[in-house]
Specification:
By secondary structure, the chain is α+β, with helices and mostly antiparallel strands. The chain is 66% helix and 12% strand. The chain folds into 2 domains: 2-202, no CATH class; 237-450, Histidine kinase-like ATPase, C-terminal domain (Heat Shock Protein 90, 2-Layer Sandwich), CATH 3.30.565.
């Protein structure tokens, strides 16, 4: 009864391991699916091994059809014995080649020893070479019972040449290029099956299979734990990287704004200075307007997030009022606002309008007109700034609007506008110009980013 108790404990362990091997994961991993099949085959092995042992111990004497049941139980037992080793052989093949299609092609050859054993054992009641029952229903080992164990050894030891491929055709020894758990279904079952053959009446093989399965189970779960830990650290690292990238983006935006804001203030104050010579009274009035503008809109100037278009338009209108007072009839402004309920980066429109005024209209004899137009299409909000000023040849200036120091200072904001549009809203800025005809700047802001 000792061995029966050992088998029952082994069966309980196998059930717990089976329940803790995720069926969901097994669907996606063929080797894990085969391992679950190993667990089932080991459980069946234990059931029929225990039943056969109890019959042999005379626990079912007097049971109806005792002889037939005894034959059936032991026949199934000898058929099942090589199956765990066979499945482990398939797992090793898959681990080495990593190709299920190739494994399926080789499977017909791998099945030959297993099927041969099944056929041989199935006719045991006739030939009695695997086992037989005497007239008193006492179990005896047959003269060729070792054939079943030879099939087991063939599969277990047959993994060595396969694992030799994994270790770059070197001798496949434990701890040499591959984890020890790959040898669990080789060493223990082979050694303990030899002990069981030498010591009749023992059931070491069942214990060997349970221990081997537990080693593999522990290794799989340890690997899964390591993968979960690695994923956790990776997610944490990705979060840190994302945070640093966001901080870097905000830093870049802040740098761009520090470039634009002094630039905006400088040009506005320059315009006021010019007015002081032309009309001091209007200059004084303009200073008051500009001071009021700064007091109520400084937050928008410092904003590094998207702001309503209406606020940006107010910035621009204030700048244009100052410039209008400076250039009077030389500067004409047209507003054609058809869409205004959207967001955009602060100081997006004003630098472009400023560029049109300072480098398109004011250098031109007789001045000209700046038109600010907004609209939308299916996917974007569109802002267009057009002037009929001097224009420029982009290819001739190497991609710059002007190469003079004054123009370079004035146009710092243009590239910053393009950069901030991309970073903050996924938007674009396209500038087209023709010498003598003027310049057309088009801003597009995706609606998924620009909805207010």
């Amino acid at each position: 009864m000792f061995w029966a108790g050992v088998n029952i404990m082994g069966f309980i362990m196998m059930c717990l391991m089976y329940l803790n091997t995720s069926a969901g994961e097994a669907k996606n991993f063929p080797d894990l699916k085969m391992f679950r099949m190993i667990q089932i085959s080991v459980m069946l092995h234990i059931i029929f091994c225990t039943a056969g042992h109890l019959f042999e111990m005379g626990q079912f004497i007097g049971f109806s059809s005792e002889r037939e049941i005894f034959y059936a139980v032991n026949t199934i037992y000898f058929i099942i014995v090589p199956i765990p080793a066979f499945l482990w052989f398939l797992i090793c093949d898959y681990k080495v080649w990593g190709n299920m299609a190739g494994l399926k092609k080789r499977l017909r050859w791998y099945l030959i020893p297993l099927i041969a054993n099944m056929i041989f054992v199935a006719f045991t009641p006739i030939h009695g070479l695997t086992f037989f029952l005497d007239g008193e229903n006492i179990y005896h080992r047959g003269s060729l019972a070792v054939i079943t164990w030879v099939v087991c050894w063939l599969y277990t030891l047959g993994t060595y040449p396969i694992l030799a491929i994994k270790t770059k055709n070197k001798p496949a020894l434990p701890f040499k290029g591959i984890n020890i758990y790959y040898y669990a279904f080789q060493l223990l079952p082979v050694i303990l099956s030899l002990v069981q053959i030498m010591f009749y009446g023992t059931l070491f093989i069942s214990m060997a299979m349970v221990i081997s399965t537990f080693i593999i189970f522990s290794t799989i779960h340890n690997k899964r734990l390591l993968e979960i830990t690695a994923k956790h650290h990776l997610a944490k690292a990705e979060l840190t990287v994302a945070k640093l990238e966001n901080e870097l983006t905000q830093s870049r935006i802040a740098t761009m704004l520090t470039q634009i804001q002094p630039h905006f203030l400088y040009n506005s104050l320059t315009a006021i200075r010019e007015l002081c010579y032309i009309d001091p009274k209007i200059a004084s009035q303009t200073v008051d307007e500009f001071a009021e503008y700064l007091r109520f809109n400084l937050d928008s100037l410092l904003e590094n997030k998207l702001i309503p278009f209406t606020k940006e338009l107010t910035h621009t209108e204030t700048y244009l009022k100052i410039e209008k007072k400076r250039f009077n009839k030389s500067l004409n402004i047209i507003y054609d606002i058809n869409a205004q309920d959207f967001l955009l980066p602060a100081l997006t429109l004003q630098p472009i309008v400023e560029n049109a005024v300072l480098h398109g209209i004011t250098p031109k004899d007789g001045g000209g007109t700046v038109t600010i137009r907004t609209g939308e299409d299916a996917g974007s909000f569109i802002i267009t700034v057009t002037d009929d000023g001097m224009g420029f040849d982009r290819s001739a200036s190497g991609g710059n609007i002007s190469s003079s120091p004054q123009s370079s200072r004035s146009h710092i904001g243009i590239e910053n506008v393009r950069s901030r549009l991309t970073v903050m809203s996924g938007g674009t800025l396209e500038v087209r110009s023709e010498v003598g005809k003027g310049t057309n700047a088009v801003i597009k802001i995706p609606k998924e980013k620009g909805h207010g």
